[in-house]
Amino acid sequence: MTGLKQEDLVLLWSPKKGDRYLIRLTSGASQSTHLGLLRHDELIGLSYGDPVLSNTGHDFFLLKPSIGEYMRRIRRQTQIVFPKEAGYILLHLSLFPGARVIECGSGSGSLTTLFANMVGDHGRVFSYDRRADFTALAHANCERWGVSERVEFKVRDLAEGFDETDADAVFLDVQAPEDYLRQVRRALAPGRQLGLIVPTTNQLERIIPALQAESFVNIEILELLLRRYKATAARLRPEDVMVGHTGFLVFATAVRGKVPCPENGEE
Amino acid sequence: MTGLKQEDLVLLWSPKKGDRYLIRLTSGASQSTHLGLLRHDELIGLSYGDPVLSNTGHDFFLLKPSIGEYMRRIRRQTQIVFPKEAGYILLHLSLFPGARVIECGSGSGSLTTLFANMVGDHGRVFSYDRRADFTALAHANCERWGVSERVEFKVRDLAEGFDETDADAVFLDVQAPEDYLRQVRRALAPGRQLGLIVPTTNQLERIIPALQAESFVNIEILELLLRRYKATAARLRPEDVMVGHTGFLVFATAVRGKVPCPENGEE
Amino acid sequence: MTGLKQEDLVLLWSPKKGDRYLIRLTSGASQSTHLGLLRHDELIGLSYGDPVLSNTGHDFFLLKPSIGEYMRRIRRQTQIVFPKEAGYILLHLSLFPGARVIECGSGSGSLTTLFANMVGDHGRVFSYDRRADFTALAHANCERWGVSERVEFKVRDLAEGFDETDADAVFLDVQAPEDYLRQVRRALAPGRQLGLIVPTTNQLERIIPALQAESFVNIEILELLLRRYKATAARLRPEDVMVGHTGFLVFATAVRGKVPCPENGEE
Amino acid sequence: MTGLKQEDLVLLWSPKKGDRYLIRLTSGASQSTHLGLLRHDELIGLSYGDPVLSNTGHDFFLLKPSIGEYMRRIRRQTQIVFPKEAGYILLHLSLFPGARVIECGSGSGSLTTLFANMVGDHGRVFSYDRRADFTALAHANCERWGVSERVEFKVRDLAEGFDETDADAVFLDVQAPEDYLRQVRRALAPGRQLGLIVPTTNQLERIIPALQAESFVNIEILELLLRRYKATAARLRPEDVMVGHTGFLVFATAVRGKVPCPENGEE
Prior knowledge:
Order of helices and strands of chain A: EEEEHEEHHEHEHEEHEHEEE
Number of strands of chain A: 14
Strand order of the largest sheet of chain A: 9-8-7-10-11-14-12
Helix content of chain A: 10-25%
CATH superfamily of the largest domain in chain A: Vaccinia Virus protein VP39
Strand content of chain A: 25-35%
Structural class of chain A: alpha/beta
Distance between the termini of chain A: 56 Å
CATH topology of the largest domain in chain A: Rossmann fold
Oligomer: homotetramer
């Protein structure tokens, strides 16, 4: 095991408060915390798992950040897709090393980073957004995790369609996904999964008939609630406050030809 | 796009009832459904997304099953880890193509299949179970998804320890995870994540102090609730019944040396 | 304490399985259970809390049913309002002994019984339904609990309006509550609460602007999720299955005159 | 309808922000808000439902506070029982006008006020607390709602037992309810319900066997999750943040004699 080096990501963790700081090692830089200062040069060469002291003598540990932890901590200008939804998305878009996956929009790149992490060196993420500033941010966040080379970012309005065909999966995080289902059908390999996220029930009510009209089947709608517990063995209880809502997830499969009857069976 | 062939997995989906049947194409076999019979030989050569008729004239579509769908439908002899937890586990164990990950027990192989799917051809899953019959089932379920070659199954009592060191991640789904933390520390690379699942609060109350005693830090405890909605646009509402509990997830990071003070900060 | 007598309600509870049977003592009648037969005549004269044996020698206890238990067990022809919502309704309609409260529809009388229980001998429940068969059922269910004399049942289409004015509270459990808000305003004392329940998000989207248009303010929308735990101390965990949805509750307050601006503040 | 007078409770509601202020009309007093000042003397003589202007010309409405609203807004020195649990408690303790109910501790009087509201002039609440300062606060909060005459407050350590027998219901909100079950049995009429609330799973694990040992049966354990929605019809969605935990509710029924076998049936 070789030591930590320039540009490695480190999660500084304090046993005092459980505080966490995500840093990227940069020679000459330092991280200030509520428990004193840590200079990056003193961390370079150490290893993940090592303890270290701040300049005021407080203990910290050098942890390797998980991709889930990273996603929660990226710099953002948009609402991001959170780990509780993102993990479920991976499984229901059936991502795998080597997959070719399309997403729109890039947003702050939270999901882009995850997809790029998971498709590996032989896979490919095609990430569309109509705003160049979001694309730049998403690119920076992918780069920080070391996977930007697996992503093709495209600044484009989705109405113009995707360049790709036979994609293994498509994910939409846009205001009006019902407007782009024709474009999705052209890009997505038949029998494969479209996933999308919307925050409101009004959007759900619009997307369902639009999916049915475009011959998407196997429609699944759900939300995930994450409930945290305090790590106190003698007084175990859920935390007082939880996230009440992030978004509704929708999955559907593209098929060939017309679906004979409306999806009554789902009622 | 070449056609479906022997041994391919297909999700048969009916627009009539939304019924789903997961099959593995086998020449000579046939699938009976509530809406008639489908002979595999008539499916071989078709493509994902194609429509097909049962012998009684009912429509079906040939979908490519997602790994999430597959996990829910594997043959099982044990309680399995479900997609809502499994996706979250992927992100917080930080799995990636090429990763070396340990799990115990193999159980029915639901999580084994997912891990093997995600680590790719250059990664490795080491899957332990003390029962040979579970190992055989887990192996069969991995093979059906086409990833069994990435897994080393070992029939062994966990008390004897793991063969591996410097693993990228460890996941425990065992009765008394607190009994095996020493073995985990030897196997897991420092600064990396241990994940585990337990069904009861009593187990949580035992694992928390055990993790603290073995210098695991950054303890996170949570559960995920999945709520499905009926895909009916004009009368949108959550489904009447939902799963009330599967298990509690715990994550923690192994560090070097003694953690100076008990994890008061987490209180 | 005098003994149990004819027409008293008793909850038979078995320590063997936790089975519960709600009976109304009727001389000559008997209750068959999975653990044998109990003759009402042998129960008359005993007291709440007493043990009793079935004809096959199994133990039962005679419990006094709570109103919550009763509501869950009434004979029903309609979807009923369940205790988890009903209790919240009591508090937010601010029911009290002596209150005059209107409800529509009567349905199976679950909420009618509760309201009548709570307003006492000096209060009054006005219960409307357009179907005479529901009214009859609701009346029977109130009578069984001994509170039917506090209720005036009216078989009427709500479009014709209520007879009452200055009611302390109004509750609507109807298909299209947005159609009857004018009638509610005439019946409800200003500054008091309207409550309503609807199962779908589409209905919520219709009722909100309708309430605003009719000068209802202080709009509150919520749902309640009830999660049960197994009463097993050594393996404490939530139950495997839970109710995923019953309905959305809406509360709003009627005021005088026009509300100056749309309820932007709530956004 | 006569006008509002000295000591009436009013909920001031602003259509601008949905802000709410609970006041008790007091000649000479005034209420400052983010939208200007309101003098009580200008409100006295108006009626519930009336509009009124602040000194800066902003609109307010005079609403009659519900008991649920009041409970959420009482002055408190302790954790209080919230309306979502309180309503369920009413139904499962089976409160009714005329009931005699015991609670311990009084705490800030949130539940005391509700119980006193519901038992009416002919009912009685016996409220115990070992701390005189809590008793004083609970008394003040009951008085503000106008129901303190229905309550007998007693400053006492629960170990000394209750003065009452044959109570219709008992509710415990104490640190170690398992220590006082014998006292509860003496005070509670057989076949009636004990309710209690505890925040941690450890307490649940202790109370279950204690209840079984003291011949309480029909044990029910649950929690309630309340999810609010934004009252915005065109973008309907749950609120971003919700309360993640308040407490676990436990209900059980006292019976006579020994319960023959441990409550295996509940497993």
